[in-house]
Amino acid sequence: MSLEFRLDAGEHVKRAVRKHWFVLILELLPFAFIAIVPLLIPALLDFVAGESGTAVRILEMLTFENGWVRLFMGLWWLILWIAAFSTFTSYYLNEWIITSRRIVEITQHGFFSREVSSALLNHVQDVTTDVHGLFPTLLGYGVLTVQSAGTNEYFHMHGVPHPQELRDIIMHEISALHPTRTDMKL
């Protein structure tokens, strides 16, 4: 695993997560439907226009033998492919890394811009999970929110798998940093 940051001495990666695979599918699904739209236009025109002469002439022009139609379809699918690839790139490169001392959020903005933020675990004030809806409940993904006392007040990760488990890991690491003192006198 190539890290975008350096681990301190004695610091260990506890968990690295990205969005749930089902969230990626949901984000890519609109591109599949939009890719089909140009193929449905002739059928839609045929249905709407019936047998009018104008509709027949338009349908004859909208065949793949027409160079302009092929150019338009090629550009349409190229733009869709780039947008879908951008969505996949964002999914693959956006990551949360929980270490024994901090939480690191790596966010990809477009193809050529990356932001790396971190919050020390000893500055974490609250960790909240939210699993809301049928698919998130059945497939086990949700939102993990970490409130920090640092400059980035909130860290949000939407669509993270098993947010309760990640919350428990974070809370365990926080308690390991701040062990309860049993030798104190009251």
Describe this structure in words.
By secondary structure, the chain is an alpha+beta fold. It folds into two domains: 13-17 and 96-177, PH-domain like (Roll), CATH 2.30.29; 26-89, no CATH class. 46% of the residues lie in helices and 26% in strands. It has helices at residues 21-49, 53-61, 67-93, 134-139, 163-177, and strands at residues 13-17, 95-99, 102-109, 113-120, 124-130, 141-148, 154-161. The chain starts with 12 loop residues before the first strand and ends in a 9-residue tail after the last helix. 15% of the residues are buried.
CATH fold group of the largest domain: PH-domain like
> Strand pairing plus helix content: what structural class?
alpha+beta
- Discrete helix count: 5
β-strand percent reads 25-35%
CATH architecture level-2 label of the largest domain: Roll
Largest sheet: 4 strands, antiparallel
N to C succession of SSEs: EHHHEEEEHEEH
Question: Uncertain segments of ≥5 residues (pLDDT<50)?
Answer: 181-186
Question: Taking Cα atoms only, what radius of gyration do you get, to the nearest Å?
Answer: 25 Å
Give the overall shape, derived from the CA principal axes. Answer: elongated
